[in-house]
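Structure ticket #2291
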Amino acid sequence: MNEYNDYAGSVRKYLQNYNKFKVTILNLEDEKEAQIKMLNDFSVSIAEYGDESGGGSSELNQTEAAADQRIKIKKEIENLDMNIAVLQRLIKKVDRSIAGLADTERRLIVGYFFDRKSWMELGNKMYYTEKWARERGNKAVKEIAFMMFGSVARPEQLRFVFCG
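Resolution: structure written out below.
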């Protein structure tokens, strides 16, 4: 079972790699376009059945090899689609979660993780201390973890203590 800090740590990694994820999607989409173009340009010749004796060979003839190559290209396109979809879902989750934060927390998260500003810079800009900015930013990361992963990211909220 994942602990609370595992979810917050995952969120930190998602936020740190957010811009890389977007670039990765663009590159995967370009690769997909190239694969589709290759598939559309790929031709499979008609099999020839002549008087030559055949058989006994595990090698593919030209037509079979071309058909096999088309199958491989289609599988590569499916894999690219799957990878793109996974990253797009992750980015949507991050975007929705950041949008769900209060304005101050949103500015801290965007400033620190996306704009690569220090906690000191952000604190000064907001007329607070570096410590305040860091603590508030860490609290925001935990809020994002809750929004992305639900109640499993906050096990303390699931514990009840009954006094008798």
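Closing remark: Residues 62-99 form the longest helix (38 residues).
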